Amino acid sequence: MTPARPPAPRSTRRLSHDRVVREALRLARAEGLPAVTMRRVAESLGTSAMALYRHVDNREALLVAMLDEVAKGISLPEPVADPRSEITVLMTAIHDALHDEPWAVRLLITDRLAGPSILPVVERIMAALLRAGLSPRDAMVAYGLLWHYTAGELLSVHHDVPDSFGRRMVAAADPAAYPALVEVFSALPPGPAGDWFPENLQRLLDGLLKHSPGPR
């Protein structure tokens, strides 16, 4: 007769997919993405790394699940008939959801991962671009430009330093040699850059929709 298997440690029995993902999110927000390893998440949960594999296939699957949780948190507004207004509110919703998640922005850009919960948002943006009169190819190009502007702006905000090396270098520059640089940087307000996302998003949409044949 085969002896009964000893019961699993209490921490292992209480593990779940949601609990693993929540702990990984906590680590990413507190210490950054490098802290999110299977071993570190397991230690934080008081269990072994092998126990995590009962709930997530691997680290990449864990990262996708983390991104999916962020996507679920996007506050989706009601659909808007006007394509430009629809794109504006949706890109703003993405921006706002990622504003305090620098680890997620870097992961989306460098690893090109995403959670399936983002698909309804992208679907609505693509539909709005098509309604604005863009061809499928131009809609894809436009979405890429909108996303890269949003991601780049977020990276800039996450790493904005009021007294950065670049600002100090321009402040010390000779106005006679670099008059345009000195004029532009002198006009910037002191402290971190302001939230220019809404204004610049409209500038980008001006260019993207300028030559479209109109709503369809």
Summarize the structure in words.
- With 216 residues, the protein is mainly α.
- It has two domains: 10-56, Arc Repressor Mutant, subunit A (Orthogonal Bundle); 76-209, Tetracycline Repressor, domain 2, CATH 1.10.357.10.
- Helix content is 62%, strand content 0%.
- The chain contains twelve helices and no strands.
- The longest helix has 23 residues, at 136-158.
- It is flat and about 65 Å long.
- Mean pLDDT is 87; it is low at 4-12.
Instruction: Write out the CATH superfamily name of the largest domain.
Output: Tetracycline Repressor, domain 2
**Which structural class is indicated by helix and strand composition?**
mainly alpha
Helix percent reads 55-70%
Overall number of domains: 2
Shape: flat
- Largest beta-sheet characterization: none
Q: In DSSP terms, counting alpha (H) and pi (I) runs of 4 or more, how many helices?
A: 12
